[in-house]
Amino acid sequence: MEYSQAEILQTVAMTEMEHLDVRTVTLGLSLRDCGGDSIAEVAQRAGDKIRTFAARLVSTVDEIGSEFGIRVANKRIAITPVSLITEGSMGDPVELAKAIDRAAGEVRVDFVGGYSALVQKGATRSESEFLDSIPEALASTERLCSSVNVATTRAGINMDAVGQVGRIIKDAAERTRDRGGLACAKFVCFANAVEDNPFMAGAFHGIGEPEAVINVGVSGPGVVHHAVRHADRNLPLQDLAETIKKLSFKLSRAGELVGREAARRLDIPFGIIDLSLAPTPVVGDSVANIIEAMGFERAGTHGTTAALALLTDAVKKGGAMASGSVGGMSGAFIPVSEDAGMIEAAQVGALSIDKLEAWTSVCSVGIDMVAVPGSTSAETIAAIIADEMAIGVMNNKTTAVRIIPAPGRVVGEVVEFGGLLGSAPIMAVNSFSSRDFIRRGGRIPAPIHSLRN
After folding, report:
1. From the candidate CATH numbers 3.20.70.20, 3.40.50.280, 3.40.50.620, 3.20.20.70, the one assigned to the domain spanning 1-296+310-335
2. Exposed e or buried b for every residue in 7-21, given b needs 16+ CB within 10 A?
3. Which of 254, 306, 370, 411 could form a disulfide with 11 if both were Cys (CB 3.0 to 4.6 A apart)?
4. Which of 361-370, 408-417, 432-441 is the most confident on average?
């Protein structure tokens, strides 16, 4: 792929005026050759491999960003789901979590994802024990992120795992009570998780991936917001979609330029570009503000699901036109605490958890960075997850939940996480119980349309 000087200058202008950044360059790294008889042995091998492959990642990406004039916000690593490499190893998985976190700190990446398990149809004894280690692993590390895939369209929903995840989230929140339940911000529960996602906290290096790969996540909600806000207010929606599609094309080209150059200099294959619009707490860098600029008083009101569908589809089409390497999830993320416009919408009552659930039927992922009262039960959290998993399974799409039951907090308060994680208003949950449904356990069978062979 060739890039013209005009394209590069346009991209530089967007970085200077409209909050464009390459959100992450993520090294995907297989640890499948790091197994051993003991967790200590696995930890040594995994740490050594991370230090070897990622030694030049941060410095190389920083050099490219400076040379091209494009901000690269985060440098990250995604590893093989850790539960796959601890099977049969004696010892505490948390020891491995800490070793991975130390290695990530030594190579100076921002996050490392993959303390994960894939249990959509059931869990082995080792995997169940691994799941129980997640709260301590997240509470005792700085950079480590975790995810669990509990459902797929082909397998259905593992409700035993959903119930266990509800308890994991409550435990993780309590272990970081003094930080507002921060450990939960590093944990995602998935349906139909993808193997090449470069975004945290849900990134892991899938078993179908090569030894190592460079994946890129581009984020440009500020660019899109600028264009929509300055468009003619009477512009028909199909023309507005075309405007967004053209911008997405440019964003994708810029991201692929950075990713391919990083891959070349590191001598690691280039994988995919994920062009999801991922907001930040910076004013103007908001997916909610894009929706509002289309003609709504507040994000969350009636009609905004349709607007989000338009936005997500236009982003995907622009990326597909620009690159043959579009992957990950590519669309629009809706993390409440990380989006200044969504924080405001939630605080004034325009945006509820129920509306977020409706949005997830058309956006990239799901209920993301939502804080709820600390008194919310594990069963209620599991029920919220179950609803979201059902949307993913029935619609054959990736959905996810990243929810924080903030200890000691009630509706109307705000919990501060800082940095890209922002601040989360405590949102109300339905007060009626789902306990007996969740306690049934078992598995919700795959839908009939999963039978495609």
Report:
1. 3.20.70.20
2. ebeebeebbeebbbb
3. 254
4. 432-441
- Ordered by start, the domain boundaries in the chain are 1-296+310-335
pLDDT for res 5:
47
pLDDT in tens, 308-319: 999 999 988 988
pLDDT of 208 higher than 50 = yes
